[in-house]
Amino acid sequence: MTQLLRNRNAAVYLGAVLVSGFGSTAMILVAGVWVMSLTGSSSLAAAVGFLMYSPTLVAPLLGALVDRTPHRRAVLVGVNLAMGLILFGLLLVRSADQVWLIFVVMLLYGVSFVVLDAAETAVLPAAVDRELLGDVNGLRMSISEGVKLVAPLVGAGLFTIAGGAGVAVLDAVTFLSAAALCLMLRFHPRGYDRSVPPSAGGLRDYPALHRLVLCGAAVTFTSGVSGAMLFAVIKDGLGYAPAYAGVLSAVQGAGAIAGGLLAGPLQRRFRAQVFVGAAIALFALSLGLRAVPATVPVLASALLAGVSLPCVLIAIATTVQREVPTERLGRVAGAVNLFTFVPIAAGQALGAVLLSTVDRRIVLAAVAVVAASAAAVCLRPVRATVPSGT
User: Fold this and answer.
1) Which contacts of 232-241 are long-range, i.e. CB under 8 A and separated by 24 or more positions?
2) What CATH number did the domain enclosing 215 receive?
3) What is the C-alpha to C-alpha distance for residues 108 and 160, in angstroms, rounded to an integer?
4) Fewer CB within a 10 Å sphere, N or C end of the chain?
5) Contact at 8 Å (CB) between 199 and 331?
6) Do residues 139 and 62 make contact, with C-beta atoms less than 8 angstroms apart?
7) Whole-angstrom distance, CA of residue 228 vs CA of residue 60
8) Could you tell me if 16 and 8 are in contact, meaning their C-beta atoms sit under 8 angstroms apart?
9) C-alpha to C-alpha distance for 322 and 304, rounded to whole angstroms
10) How confident is the model at residue 188 (pLDDT cuts 50, 70, 90)?
11) What pTM was estimated for this model as a whole?
12) For the chain, what is the domain count?
């Protein structure tokens, strides 16, 4: 950790993550509340989240566009700067008639997240030593989870004092600050080959990574199903009020912070498939514990889920950065985002349907088996590809 913080590029990048993450987390919460307060419509408020996450469906395409420029730092600076300026447009929102501005901005918000993730994936291998990539990705996750414990409270408080416009200004300033920090990154590009078409190649060209991503998709799908069971677990299993979800969220957040800090050192000790397989097995255990109608097992489930799930995502991101050529990083990173985050929504939808017809304990036991199976698949050796014609 000391070596990491002494690395100028790592410190600058993580500073940008902290600043922009704080503003973004506050804005994500407030956007839906803002729409609800202006329109009184819960469906319109829910549409904000859909618009923000919908660009993930075209993440490979957006990643391929990022691949077409070797100047990834310029993409980081430009997107942060553009979003900082765009957010000032929300100062025009005064009534329900201007709610469409919030929708447009949140859609662009989602696009910026996908583009920034692809650009960051490509920049980090050129800015940070290879052996530090796991630590940077882990600490990035810890920072992202840490701000989730504070930023929503700040955002909600600022909303009550200054309205949505006040939170928009805060978020704009954080984006502009992140752009300034990204300008400070110094690196030597990692062999960008202009002769290689950026669109060439995909996840299937990297069998080990392909295996990790598919197993990660299975896990995020089960996490979505489990998430849909949350309030049934609290009410029917534990007999507590729905507000107890805040306690479980805090415990899981603490676990995620710990998982992010542990991911870097552990990745240096184990091969990626072993590390990811073990993390998935731990997540499968957390799903099983959630089915137990007792407080201690459910709290343990939240903690284990918080530790294990981020480790899976961190290891996949690190493997992408280490194994994929620079000219293809954006496209592959976009495909990884598609396969690891879209299943969450699908899992939540299926969980909501199953909850009305199947006992939650049966559902949780079933997804625990799915996750355990994914862990077993992940731990199997990957066959070496045989060149064509041999």
Assistant:
1) 232/355, 232/360, 233/290, 233/298, 233/360, 233/364, 236/293, 236/360, 237/292, 237/293, 237/298, 237/360, 237/361, 238/293, 238/294, 238/295, 238/298
2) 1.20.1250.20
3) 25
4) C
5) yes
6) no
7) 27
8) no
9) 27
10) low
11) 0.82
12) 2
